[in-house]
Amino acid sequence: MMDCGMHMGYNDERRFPDFSYITRNGKLTDHLDCVIITHFHLDHCGALPYMSEMVGFDGPIYMTHPTKAICPILLEDYRKITVERKGETNFFTSDMIKSCMKKTVAVSLHQTVQVDSELEIKPYYAGHVLGAAMFHVKVGSQSVIYTGDYNMTPDRHLGAAWVDKCQPDLLITESTYATTIRDSKRCRERDFLKKVHDSVDKGGKVLIPVFALGRAQELCILLETYWERMNLKVPIYFSLGLTEKANHYYKLFITWTNQKIKNTFVQRNMFEFKHIKAFERIYADNPGPMVVFATPGMLHGGLSLQIFKKWCTSENNMVIMPGYCVAGTIGWKILNGHRKIEFENRQTVEVKMSVQYMSFSAHADAKGIMQLVRQCEPRHVMLVHGEEKKMEFLSKKIRDEFGVKCFMPANGETVTIPILHPIPIDVSLNLLKHDTVSQAAQDSPAPKRSKVIHGALVMRDSALRLMEPRQAMKELGLPEHEIRFTSTLTLEDDGQPTKTADKIYQLIKRHFGRHSIQQSSDGNISLSESVLVKVSGVDDDIEKEILVSWSLQVSLCHLVKLNSMSLVAMSSNNIGSNILSV
Ligand SMILES: [Zn+2]
């Protein structure tokens, strides 16, 4: 199972995955070999304690080291908001988070993990957030790449996603920004800074809901540099405690960040800011302009929602949503033009503040997704984690450009994907040498062209080998059988039978000149050591009897096309029957 996320737009059991798709009454562990978590965002890991502790799953759960470190903190934060503040029941507990995390196995980038005798997984760098990984999942010769969320362009603190040219049977990619070819990064940044600056200039308050780790660091670096350059004095705040936590993890997993951050960290703490100070709840009521970074990112609870409630009724203020919001969240509602928002306590407010959306969330855009497809050369593509209309646009683009099938299944839909099932065959060196040499003698050598070779296919201990028939019979201890076909024709021809034989000899020579043809002193003709033609009759009788006999020495041979390893069985020796038609 790839990822185990929570739907942030629901407050009931619909927020968790519907495990009845996997089994209705059996144990999940009997149906799933393992769970792979790509990164710490709750829409990718939020239902993990529910799955392992409440539904019941005892198998291994794989994630990278940073994800394993940060994931439980976000789960606990979210649990607190849901249970302690909203008073919800039927949710996992702190202890459940702990015992769930005990079942997780941390993996390193490019480390091949053998889950069992058949299943193999390998993580690749995905950018997006600290510790995010794409996974290559392999069983035998079949493989799938699952991207999770990823980013194909490096940002201020992380690098770009990268994957081997591993030609998987299927690439399952997120498609959050399937249509947007986002304007250049610098444009977006300038736009963001201008909006914040204009708003505080007019005395307004700016709220930026963020996730604790990820875009927050990116935007802080950006604002800090701008404030310094423009010599601005308006206070900027960041949710208390989160900076510390973030710093701790960036320091711990410095190898996962980009080179610039790695270099800076040696001299000073990259996330230690001059202009950005820790936020305290009472500041929200302070008069005058300010900028506040607060969690969580989609305004679905916690501090960001509290501040939003206070500030949203004034048109002087502004909220900047720096990323994608899941349907149903307040973030999603205001981005979709809802201006009357109802909160849990039935209190309705009218949103007058300016609502801005800036695509800072580090997902691949259409260009990035195409780039990844080009990079790993999949045989099929599946789009997930996106909106239908946008996916349709992108799937057409993928089909047109790469000529591969592109699927976009709805929730609960089953997709059948045809795959090649190559059967490996060992070819004996002798046979290979013999065939290549004799072919090379005939045609000009063309190393990349596929060649046809003849041999006996032997299956032993469920392994297939192609070898010279004589060798095969020797190994298997089988006596050689010869099957001969004979046919007698009557021909009207004047003169001695040897004269008729001579005529036939010339005819055969003309038609089968490439084969070895011999005529013995008694007039018998042999062709390719297999076909025998005998003419008999009386000198003054016009009717002559012609006996054609041919063997099927190599019996049923198999043609093996080496490039695709597909098998074709056919009878190879049909010279005899051709002679009959001549
Ligand atoms: Zn994410």
In brief, what are we looking at here?
With 582 residues, the chain is α/β, with parallel strands linked by helices. The chain contains 16 helices and 28 strands.
Structure commentary:
This protein is of the alpha/beta class. Among the domains are: 13-181 and 363-407, Metallo-beta-lactamase, Chain A (4-Layer Sandwich); 185-357, Rossmann fold, CATH 3.40.50. It contains 16 helices and 28 strands. The protein has a seven-stranded mixed β-sheet, covered by helices on one side. Helix 3 packs antiparallel against helix 4 (94-102). Mean pLDDT is 85; it is low at 554-573. The structure holds zinc ion (ZN). The site of zinc ion has 5 residues, from loops.
